[in-house]
């Protein structure tokens, strides 16, 4: 048992008080974990576009502590937690694995009934209360993780225990975007060695999908984006060909079909743009082509394609978090990095101390870089 177990801890957190305004680093109180909860000392965290989206939005859940890509060390355990110990190195994850529901018992689903992502809940499941407060007033959680705090409390089902030798300042990016893109390719698209893959969107998630295609041994990886400045960087992730959507006045699926003698074997869509989604499906080869949708479209978007595109044996799939079960599968993704199969360093383009966290938002708003690592101890 740690010396701080059961105590309320005062630590620094970057608090968002209103939409679009700089985060304020200030003291917060972090309550001890309750039943099936874990208190984690965050070592490193990074900014994901999901954080940016909700920070910019006029959600009523302010004040709030954002952050959901991170790595840390278990500080203390709540009642009922039996598969973790104080000192374990862990990744807190925005979605979970209770182990008991139909999804968790399924070999093909990772969409846990109890711990599935919930962006509108600002409290913990155990009692409907926040574990964060400032001068006695509650501060909202974000995605059950809130990693922009030196200490955070997370449901144990959303905590993946990892290899203690893994560098936390690198594997922290595996708790969201990189795993999402990587798993979309390796677990869902499943390209064969020597096959062709098209990736729509060359941000961090799309480049992780390309990295998955590289690992799988695809011989041709076509990057599709509207920004030519991303093409050179994408070569580091195995991308061999590039299509700039803004340079064509005909459907991109026609361009790709012409490039590949009828279509690619697999495609992965990572933008959430409905036109790109349709293009990603229609650009795969008939008879065996598989398209995987990763990006989240607007709630009113409608996917439209001619039924013959399906009847001609093209397959359309969706995926959530790359079909990884957080507790079961993320340790093996970390091991892929440790075994030098997966290259994480090329995703990390900036490093800043916690005191400069607002710079990470500036980088992302300007479209500069992929992942910015925020050191909580600098």
Structure commentary:
The protein is an alpha/beta fold and 378 residues long. It has 11 helices and 17 strands. Strands 3, 4, 5, 8, 9, 16 and 17 form a 7-stranded mixed beta sheet that branches. A hairpin with a 2-residue loop joins β6 (132-134) and β7 (137-139). α4 (177-189) packs across α5.
Summarize the structure.
This is Alcohol dehydrogenase class-P. This protein has 378 residues and is α/β, with parallel strands linked by helices.
Q: Classify the beta-strand content into a percent band.
A: 15-25%
Question: N-to-C SSE series?
Answer: EEEHEEHEEEEHHEHEHEHEHEHEHEHE
- From the alpha carbons, calculate the radius of gyration and give it in angstroms: 21 Å
Query: Which spans of ≥5 residues are poorly predicted at pLDDT below 50?
Result: none
Number of strands: 17
Q: How many helical elements?
A: 11
